[in-house]
Design brief:
alpha+beta, globular, binds nickel (II) ion
């Protein structure tokens, strides 16, 4: 299992680099990310969250879409936007509505480097945008108003105070 980095750790705000090598190390990393996401009961996990500053994330929308996105690029977003309550494995215990486009078209590569395009709506579109934000050094709380963000940081600190550095 991989360690999940939390709010306040630099790697979450470090720019990511394109994946160039589609080798066995990449496959092992992606497998470990799926396992870590499952273990943490998450629906998405991005490279920076496990200390890897590379453009990749994994998703499982629990509706049959279990997908690794390497070098993803959102090439189209719907005009329609809406709120949805988001959370993040890097900001545990914190949930807040975020307004985003309801649909996206994303281009990416799979673990073998093969290109694919997905037109997503619903939860899948939501997760893709949340995870893609991680690749651009942005957490979901960074999309809130300044006041709401500050409130969420307080909630996070209160809920995670006693859990820090247990090992
Ligand atoms: Ni997240």
């Amino acid at each position: 299992m991989l360690d999940i980095y939390k709010l306040g750790e630099d790697v979450l705000y470090t720019p990511t680099e394109k994946v160039k090598k589609f080798d066995s190390a990449l496959k092992m990393l992606i497998d470990a990310m799926f396992d870590t996401m499952d273990e943490a009961d998450g629906v998405g996990l991005a490279g920076p969250q496990v200390g890897v500053s590379q453009k990749l994330f994994v998703v499982d929308d629990r509706k049959g879409n279990r997908i690794a996105f390497i070098n993803p690029e959102i090439i189209e977003t719907s005009v329609e936007v809406g709120p949805y309550e988001e959370g993040c494995l890097s900001v545990p215990g914190v949930y807040h509505d975020v307004i985003r486009p309801l649909g996206v078209t994303v281009q990416a590569q799979d673990v073998n480097g093969k290109a694919f395009t997905i037109k997503a709506t619903g939860l899948l579109a939501r997760i893709i945008q949340h995870e893609n934000d991680h690749l651009n050094a942005k957490l979901f709380i960074d999309r809130l108003s300044e006041d709401d963000r500050a409130m969420m940081v307080k909630v996070y600190e209160r809920k995670n105070k006693t859990k820090k550095r247990k090992k």
